[in-house]
Structures are given as C-alpha cells and as structure tokens.
Amino acid sequence: MSERTDGALTALPANEVPFEDLQTVLGAAAAGRCQCQRQVLGDREWWYMPVAERRFRLAEQTSANDPDAPETSGLVGYLDGEPVGWVAVAPRPTYRRLHGRSGIPWKGRAEDKDDASVWSATCFVVRKSYRGRGLTYALARAAVDFARERGAAALEGYPIVARDGGTIVWDEASVGTPQVFRAAGLEQVSAPTVRRRVMRIDF
Questions:
Q1: Which of 10, 23, 44, 114 has a CA 20 to 30 Å removed from the CA of 102?
Q2: 58-69: burial string, b at 16+ Cβ within 10 Å, e else
Q3: pTM score over 0.85
C-alpha cells in the first residue's frame, strides 16, 4: 500500500482500501448524499442524480477495491485502523463544476482549464466524532504528497473564508480553509470572490 503517515493519521489511496471504509467516512448526512460528486458533475447534473447513482460514480472514480488500478480520485485517512477522513484530489479537469458559472479558479487568471498536469484538492471530510484534532491539516499534506508522487506539476485548492465577524460552518469548510492549505505549503494566487481564494503549490 502507498501509505502516507502524518502524525497519527495514515492516508491511503482510495483504490487500496475497502470502498465501505470510504462510505463510513462519508456517512449518511450531507457528505454521504453528495458522494463527492457535485464538484465532478457540476450543479445541474448533480442535483437531479439519485444518491445511489452518485455512489456508483464515486466507486468508478476511486477504482474501488482495485489496488492495482493506475488511477484513483482521493485518499482515505485512518487512525488506529479506523477510517476517519477523506480528501478528494485528482487532475483539475476532473472537476466540471470548476468550469461552471462560478468560474472560481479563473477570474483574473489566464490558464488552460483542461491542463491535466494541474491537480485540485476539492473536498475534505472528517467523521464528526474525530473533528477538532487537526486531521484536515494532515489530509491536505497527504494530498500534496500524493499529487507530487503521481506526477502533477502543481496542486490547487479553493478554500473559503468567513464573512466579516462570522464563522465557517463545517459543511462550508469541506472545501478547505486558507490556513489548512497554507500549512501544506500552498500560497494564495487570487481572491476571485469575497469569500473564496485560490491557493497553489508548484512542484
């Protein structure tokens, strides 16, 4: 297994672990309903797709239960053998929502949207009972290592910031926060909206 150990957390490519471990992390709430498909499909197709179909798509994208697969779409994090976290990380063109109306990565930037050498870390999930332990930070560092090892030229993240005087709720923070990406070595390259940032590390 291609494991990455960060403190107590061990992160493994999703194809190398049981698909049910990933489902345990996603749970039955918002992440379990999304199945990490909104960023992949875009809002319209995602909205009308049944959860069972989203789950099937995720199994295909992760090359579920196929440890010899050459590609997968993220990492599952473990503590003491228990699945506790997930980070979606794959070549940037994987995520059609990034090309949609929000245009978050592109405002003020002239880049090839279809450049597969640039990867994106688009979603973090930590099981509710394991939050508050800094696991998102460890997952972000694992995503950087994973993208680098798989030959990426760069890795981007698209974190959210709090409104003035406000706080970020957990579901919003699923895209990451600037401090999480900064701790993993990414630097801000643009601020396309009031609350969204583009951060990047070049390898």
A1: 23
A2: bbebbbbeeeee
A3: yes
